[in-house]
Amino acid sequence: MLDISVIIPVYNAGQFLEKSVESAVHFDEVKEIILVEDKSTDNSLEICRKLASENPKIKLFQHPDQGNHGAGATRNLGIEKATGSFITFLDADDYYLPNRFDAEKEIFNDPKIEGVFGAIGVEYLTEKGKQEYQTKFKDAALTTVNYPAEGEEVFRGLLSLTPKAFGTFFHLNALTIRKSALDRAQLRFNKDLRVHQDSDFNIKLAYHCHLKSGIIDKAIAIRGIHDDNRITKIVQYSPQYNQRQYLYWKSLYDWASSKGLPAEYQKRIYLSYKSFDLSQKKGLAKYSNIVLEGLKNPEILKTKYRFNYYK
Questions:
Q1: Is residue 309 part of a domain?
Q2: Are the CB atoms for 284 and 253 separated by under 8 Å?
Q3: Where is the Glycosyltransferase 2-like domain (predicted)?
Q4: Which pTM does this prediction carry?
Q5: pLDDT (tens digit, 9 = 90+) per residue, 78-135?
Q6: Where do the H-state alpha helices sit in 13-151?
């Protein structure tokens, strides 16, 4: 049987946390639930303590300084504290469905498979959150990929390098990974990214580890959409959006350069990184830099970001 450590980073999630934990704690495969509280300003810490006192599967941790360090550093602490052979993640305002580990039970019989990912659905908890989400993501019922894949095909798909569109991405809530694979690759979340650290992690994971798709045609977890979802609040291609995308792609660019990825992959990452780098510039300098970059790398004019520059 799988022995899974579920890592839940907790920050101001008091009204959702019990449902989240209850959705995971009953699985026989779940060895432990690791709550890592990140200096919430609501009653989250009190709820964490209550839950941990009621069930020995539930363990509570805080950062050594009891400070706020963001989701990346908080998940990293959870990984360090995990004792299970497998790691999964769950956001404190989301929850697992009963089929969460159905694919894993079979797929992980193959020792070469190091990670399995599936689809996640949405539940609208507030009308404002629904409107913000649907404005940005239309009315996507599932966050998933378009077809089954494994190994390098997953990495290529996430970089939009496959002949047919692979899909957007897979959500951390729908990922199960061998802890030994994370340790072998020395892979952790970029703690300096306050948003997009999950996408950054997944792309690096897909390069270093052998991933395989599991259940991708129906949800195995649910994401709660409400007024305080940070990602849905940012207007696409606004200055704030471009800045966050720049930091995300710069993280990937620095990683790809340091790891010496094949030229095709470095080029793809560079073009996205440079596109958002150019979006940070203003006035004549911005347009002159776009022209110069276009002369050096004409492919940048074909990226999906090529005309999305705020003045």
A1: no
A2: no
A3: 5-132
A4: 0.91
A5: 999 999 999 999 999 999 999 999 999 999 999 999 999 999 999 887 777 777 766 6
A6: 17-25, 44-54, 70-81, 102-107, 127-137
